[in-house]
Every structure is written in structure tokens, then in C-alpha cells.
Amino acid sequence: MRTGYFYSLIFALLTSASIAAIAAPVAPVQASSAVVAMDAKASTESAKVDLNEADAAKLQKELSGVGEAKAKAIVAYRETNGPFTSVDELLEVKGIGKAILDRNRDKLEVN
Question: Does 6 fall in a domain?
Fold first, then answer.
């Protein structure tokens, strides 16, 4: 008998908790997430990596398929041969192939 009474109390407690959760007002979250998404999109569109000014850490972070070793190779090539004259000159760097260049072409610039 006591077990049935205990289960009835638990059922009543859970029911009232679920009703309270359903009836609780929900704050609008969409406004803040839209601003964050817009800011992220604007920063990725406008930011291009300059091959003649970027350090190895920035190259590694911004370019896909470029890890620490390839980023250091790009910087070493630039220090040895002078500044890049075009984005296509990146193919001369050991470890950088046509696929990596094509994947990152829209992110790169030479000034």
C-alpha cells in the first residue's frame, strides 16, 4: 500500500514539473545568433592571406591542407627567393601541389 502511495507522489511531482517546463516562457535567441553568424561571414569574406607578409602560424591557421611543416616551407622559400610575385609561384614550394593551391586560391593574395 505504501509503495503505491509513493509512486503516486512521484508521478504527481514529475507531471507538475513537466507542465511547468512546457508552460515556461522561452526567451528569443535568434537575434544574437544571427549577429554572430553575420560577423563570422563578413570576416571570412574580406580576410585574404598575403603570401609576402603572413607568418607561418597565420598560414597554417588560414589555409586548408597547410600544416606546420608546409607553412614553414612557404616562409623559408620567401626568405630564400624573395617575395612572391604571384599566387601561382606557391607551386615552387616543396609540399605544395596544384590541389592545395586550387583549394586556397581565393584566400590568397600577393602584395
Answer: no
